[in-house]
Amino acid sequence: MMVPGRRSSTFSRLLRHGFTDPSAAERLMESAELAPIRNDPVLLDALGATADPDLALLGLVRLVEAQDGHTAQRELLDTLIAAKPLRDRLLGVLGASAALGDHLARHPLDWQALVMYEPQDLHPGTPEFERGLAEASDPVTLRVAYRRCLLSIAARDVCGTTDVAQTAAELADLATATLRAALAIAGSAAPEDAALCRLAVIAMGKCGGHELNYVSDVDVIFVGEAVDGADEGKALRAATRLASHLMRICSETTVEGTIWPVDANLRPEGRNGPLVRTLSSHLAYYQRWAKTWEFQALLKARPVAGDLELGETYVATLAPLVWQAAERENFVPDVQKMRRRVVENIPVAEIERELKLGPGGLRDVEFAVQLLQLVHGRVDTSLRSGTTLDALKALAAGGYVGRVDAVLLEDAYRFLRSMEHRIQLFRLRRTHLVPEDDADLRRIGRSLGLRTDPIAELNREWKRHASVVRRLHEKLFYRPLLDAVAQLAPGESRLSTNAARERLVALGYADPAAALRHLEALASGVSRKAAIQRTLLPVLLGWFADSADPDAGLFNFRKVSDALGKTPWYLRLLRDEGAAAENLARVLSAGRLAPDLLMRAPEAVALLGDGDGGGLEPRSRAHLEQEILAAVGRASGGEAAVTAARGVRRRELFRTAAIDIVNSYGTDETPANADQGALVDLVGGAVSDLTAATLAGTLRAVVRDGWGDSLPTRFAVIGMGRFGGHELGYGSDADVLFVHEPREGVDEQEASRAANSVVSEMRRLLEVSSADPPLLIDADLRPEGKSGPLVRTLKSYEAYYRRWSLVWEAHALLRAEVVAGDEELGRRFIELVDPLRYPAEGLGEDAVREIRRLKARMESERMPRGADPTLHSKLGRGGLSDVEWTVQLFQLRHGWEKSGLRTTRTREALAAACAAELISGEDASTLDEAWVLATRVRNAVMLVRGRAGDTFPSDSRELAAVGRYLGYGPGHVGDMLDDYRRTTRRARAVVEELFYGAAER
Fold this sequence. Notes:
Helix content: 55-70%
Radius of gyration: 38 Å
Oligomer: single chain
Shape: elongated
Largest sheet: 5 strands, mixed
């Protein structure tokens, strides 16, 4: 008798053997069904060895209960105790799969299929499974026979008799046998259809690749032909009926459940295309219409059922097209984009648990391997395997993948597939999500041999292998390019030169020979520098390939590395600071401007890091002025001072270009900034502040060099145009006005000479040829234009504006803002011009008509000859000029009464006009979108070409680079131009109504 409060010895033993509910297990052990064997120690030991002892015990009791009579029960129990192989197999299955436990309870004699294996049964193939399904005559009996065969596969799997690859191959062979049996059932139901046609079933996906899961869609393509003398149309209709019936036999739910869905959506035109096509129809489609992913899918095509001769002909006919796929334009980007699209479509709540499709999942391995097969399988037939692990071994043997990388990737793939198998085996449901329930995780961990702390160990191993896949799946593509040019250990396989060139061409390199020379220069040798480069370059090559000009990215990287390679911090920065290497790759491959700025002072690479010396956020105007004025103060003369100021400007231009590029491209960790307006404001503000600080420093340098501490006249610089509007682009001139006022007691002519000397010297020093980009000063918006004096006194401006001012000058003064020099004098100038630019009661109708006339004249006269007006970002339809003149007309007419309109900035003024209900929210959004897009185009052209331009480049590679900056992937240049035309066309319609229209606003 057990003492109250004390646990029984059975309870304790159950706990030690891994039972999680020992009370329930104890009751089951005491059941009458297990009476003959309950005290036999081998039973408890065998149950404790399973993935889920509680589940295995419950399944055993149900199986014994289901036996037909005492004799059958005794036979089962005696065999279980006497035969260890059966004990391990049966209890192993019962502890891993509730679904197969249910099957055994419904079909209690099927346990006998596990009693013993002949040697030939250890690794059965399609013929053995066909024999196992031979007696099936309808969908129900087919399901029962299928589960019986599946039971034997699962038994070998959970007992370790077969590894994950062998299990996957057996599941594919069982699927092959099942498709054949289903087609035979369909044929026997419609013999007249079977007599009319030849029908081949082509397995695709994992079934075709001989690596099927326990529960997966079986992807197929059907090929049909008429038998001799039959009408082709009738034959295809007959074949379609047979194919449809086959799919229903396998997919529909019966009293015995379902087998798996048969999915024919990989066929030409997908679900919109005919279910069955002739071979010639298939060929025509793939020759004319197929996308890159469709050729990738054909890697795994394998005839499995029906007319195998027709199936083999199908595969042989399409094979040449498969191995030409890598020659298609944008091949690698297309494949990579498809992979990214798969990840993007995973629900956010599931992405961390997605074993197949998530980052570091099975699909990453499969995509990487398939990409390499398609690139190199053209010339190396040993790579043409539909099975992932076989293909990976062949890639490693041929030197296309590093051997160590291949081993790590294979181990990860095997572990992840094993997890996937165990997850699906439990309920025989199609899923790739790692469960969250601890009981499920514990069962999976134990089934994989993790017994000490199954849940923690499983999560640790899963994350470790996923991390390996994430780290290797892209590196896999690039690492052997370095091995092809670097010194390898004796006997190590390497890419041949031709294979390396093929891979570089597939990545988008236009000059693979030059690229190989650069790689050799960077990565050869045994120095620490070369070793670090070999670590960095595989990842950098991927980032370069993500740009429109990988050749330029690699070449620029070599130049920067040659310049900085001997400095101790350069490679350490790229290796140790996560952001620096990717930021550098983006910057070096995005166009000419940023690399040109960087090469003039390569140490600016430090800005790209995230450490103390880094940071790409533009600095404030106050900070810039402080630095530039300090540099000017340390310089020995005017020229040296302005050289120092221009050096700061060059560095800060690089900083601004770099953050613009990084934000536009995005990084592995941070997606591209979707707020295009914010990017435009960032660049406009940063370049305008930098220009103002540079002018302030140059003014200080010139005054100090010529007059010491004090100029004979007070002097101010007024920003105009885009400069005054804080909207400068990389290639913009600085539009300015110069104003001075003689100091007390100074002769006006002396003051005027001094002011003119200052302007002349500032312009000379800022434009003189040097390593730094020039800053061009444009004063053509001054009174009387080019015919008027460069500098005027404040009184002269007042007299001119009072007597002679024209409408266009008031229009231009809307952008006037003090940018450098005497702040008090500048403030008084602004007070002087405010009544001109915001006239009381607004503009009269005559003035409005004059502005419209000037705009129309500018459109007709200033558009460059031969330019496409739909693509000219400044003067074209719906471009910058259209939007700005429309907004500025609001300011001229209503600025006197609407204080929000009194701003030099276009977007702020447009928002104020909307707030004042002068323009609808929809129209304001249309104008803003067009203005932002046109500004981005101008910035892109300067970044890409290294020189300013208002139209899209004609060179295809430059045009693609502009598209990449604007967020358009490879092959979508046409979409970019269409979107630009659509956006600006809509803006022009608003301009026609608001600027040229008769309605009063």
